[in-house]
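User: I'm preparing a small set of examples for a lab meeting where we compare how different chains pack in three dimensions. I only have the primary sequence for this one, and I'd like the structure in token form so I can line it up with the others. Please keep the answer compact; I'll paste it straight into my notes.
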Amino acid sequence: MKSTILTLCFLTLINYGYTQEQQVIDKLKELGIPVNFMDESDDRTNYSFVCNYSSETTALGTTTEVTKKSYSYDPAGGETKFRLISINGNTPTEKENLDFDKEQNGKESGDAGKPDTKSLTFVSEDENQLVIGFRYRAKSLPEKYKFLKDCKGEAYINKNTNHLEKIKFFNEKDLRYHILKITKLDMLQVLKYMPETSTYLIEKEVLEMDMKYFGTIAKGVETTEYSGHTHIKK
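Assistant: Understood. Below is the structure token output for the 234-residue chain.
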């Protein structure tokens, strides 16, 4: 009995020193996946694409606002990499073009944050999938995704291909998204691996939010689909 207790204490001390970060790193090495595999989880610098975006806000069970935008992206486009194609199916006005240009081209671009390796945690694993928990380093996030500094992420890796397939995010506390106060946030990013550049691109992103909207609680859904990815050789 005494030896059993001593053994359990010894194993507990070993496990205490063996951090979750190290467990994740060792598992990635075992699968042949580099620890920094997420550093360029959406490297848009080498690809042009077309984007279809829609947002819907529902308050008190009634849809109050629906917006649809279509735009293109060209990494060789200089100061106007993003170009607005249509809004709600209509040709954009001059003001809408100016507002879009300020929103998309006037801010830091890119969709790739840098995970903090010290935040890595083991979530789950089966014969086909490994799920890793992480947080982004706040200073690495582009303007569009600054709100993710207050969120936890989960990376889903296909063990048959050793590729990242999707990332999920959820908030741990109330946060700000643009001017809105968000009480609940869930975001899914579906990724596509690009072998010619060994990077990932977002194919679809769905952002679901519970928010305070003009004095009431509303639900918002933003869906963004990216297609027509074309490799731009430099």
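A couple of notes for your slides: The CA atoms of residues 170 and 186 lie 5 Å apart. The chain has one domain: 20-231.

User: Perfect, thanks.
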